[in-house]
Design goal:
285 residues, 14 helices, mainly alpha, 78% helix, single chain
């Protein structure tokens, strides 16, 4: 009579063991899923930032085909297309992200960025106009400044550049853009100040160094500014200054600067040599 009870106990134990096994399996699956999510998040970040842009495009295209409703993959693909110098395609993907139910104002900002990169200024302006005024970010005001520049609305451009530079701890790039805007308007003195300020934040930004030299040359200041530079950079800056001087009619100054650039460069400075030869040929004729 004890056997049935024993069988029942065994069966009960088996059921409990089975339930425990199922619970254990479920916990393992959940843990693996969590690990996969972390791994995928890390991989997505790597693809968007340091991976080869074309490889990143292939990865996000393939992954998005498998998960067509995931906005994070849309963003990854769009950013990767931008890095791959394909802004028109990036804009198409950003439009899909903007239409997604989980879209944020930042998605529209990035759409505007892609449109500007693909030279679609009117479309970019239209997208920026749809962003609520309460969305105050560096990227938004950086793009607003660029659009105002394209419209030659200098007062608005200056306002947006100033706001943008105050919304980031690394304003060198936007200060450089602002300075270039001033330079194109003919305000070389104002441009010089902004390029100099940009270099206080990023002393290695060669674009700002070159623009600073051009701003100074526009004021007929034909000496190099006191900024950190390599020997190659010094030669290239002298070359830029020389061309600016020649363009302004200061030919003798330009010729002297070309000679300095050639002598300064640690290697053969082909572009400067050609310019000097062309200048000598024109003088002789």
């Amino acid at each position: 009579m004890r056997h049935p009870a024993f069988v029942v106990l065994c069966l009960s134990g088996a059921v409990v063991l089975s339930a425990c096994q199922k619970n254990s399996d479920a916990q393992v699956q959940r843990a693996l899923k969590d690990v996969n999510v972390v791994d995928e998040t890390n991989l997505n970040e790597v693809m968007m930032t340091v991976a080869d842009p074309n490889e990143a495009v292939s990865y996000f295209t393939r992954t998005l085909q498998q998960n067509p409703d995931r906005i994070d993959l849309m963003r990854g693909l769009a950013r990767s297309l931008t890095r791959a110098q394909k802004p028109t395609e990036a804009a198409q993907v950003w439009r899909k992200a903007v239409a997604h139910k989980d879209s944020t104002p930042d998605d529209r900002v990035m759409l505007a960025d892609a449109l500007i990169r693909s030279n679609q200024w009117a479309e970019a302006k239209a997208e920026l106009n749809q962003i609520p005024p309460t969305h105050e970010t560096f990227d938004r005001y950086r793009l607003e400044a660029m659009v105002a520049d394209s419209d030659r609305n200098w007062k608005k451009a200056d306002s947006f550049y100033e706001i943008a530079s105050g919304l980031t701890t690394t304003p060198a790039g936007v200060l450089n853009n602002w300075g270039f805007s001033k330079l194109t308007r003919g305000d070389a003195g104002g441009a010089e100040k902004l390029f100099t300020e940009a270099l206080t934040y990023d002393p290695g930004l060669f674009t700002a160094k070159n623009n600073l030299v051009l701003a100074r040359a526009a004021q007929r200041k034909y000496d190099l500014p006191v900024v950190r530079m390599t020997q190659v950079e010094r030669a290239e800056l002298l070359y830029s200054m020389a061309l600016a001087a020649i363009k302004q009619g200061d030919v003798s100054v330009g010729k002297s600067l070309l000679n300095q650039a050639i002598e300064t460069h640690p290697q053969h400075f082909e572009a400067a040599v050609r310019s000097l030869q062309a200048l000598d040929a024109n003088v002789k004729t």
